[in-house]
Write a structure and sequence with these properties.
Layout lengths: L1 E6 L5 E7 L6 H9 L2 E5 L15 E3 L4 E3 L8 E2 L5 E2 L9 E4 L4 E4 L16 H7 L7 E5 L3 E8 L2 E8 L7 H19 L3 E5 L22 E8 L5 E7 L5
Parallel strand pairs: 12-13
Antiparallel strand pairs: 1-2, 1-3, 4-5, 6-7, 8-9, 10-11, 11-12, 13-15, 14-15
Amino acid sequence: MAHYAELDDNNVVVRVVVMSDDLQDGEKECAHLYGGRWKQTSYNGNFRARYASPGMLYNTQHDAFVYPQPYPSWTLDQACEWIAPIPKPEGKHRWVESLLRWIPICTPTTSLTIEDEPLPQSFVQRYGLVESTIVPIRSDSVFALGLEMTNNRIFCHGVVHEWQAETRARVLAEISRALDQVQNDCQRDVYAYSTYGDEENNPLSGKTLHFSELVGFSDSMKAVLADGLEHTITIRRYVQR
């Protein structure tokens, strides 16, 4: 039997059908029977890199079926596998696109390892959250904020682009409103921390987002999170206003 993949207008595989081996031009026959555009695929991966499945992409340059690009900075190698700009180090690491580097997969402090109750699916979908992946939710000339979902908990981290004395109060007020919105949506504690971690010793601390200056924070603790740095975590309790 022969296998053929239907492609949409963006060369995404829609479905795969099985046809007879003795067709002279199976791709044209599929188009005649079902409409659309078709490319033959090998069940054993003998050609076009691998067996196609729905959601994969047909890459015209390589004449191959490839998985969706995982990150904008990754490119296809000769085997039609996506590779990062820099080689992956030994041990357990994961790629952080915002930093363009591999970071160790770190275990948070004991107090952060126990999972909370699952977050509402509507909240997860609204922010496009993926487990242990930093999702940007705001980035402008004033400050940037990102969310990370780990163990069904929400961690918010960010960096200030404008941190002058005369704008400090306004920036903190804007950040507070942004976090209020997140907390209103998830109806639970939000763990907040600064991008650069060691605020006391890090020379970049002048650009660090000091969440602790916002009213309502408590329960500080240490943890190593998605960017591979140790952070002082503070919990901003949700308060219905």
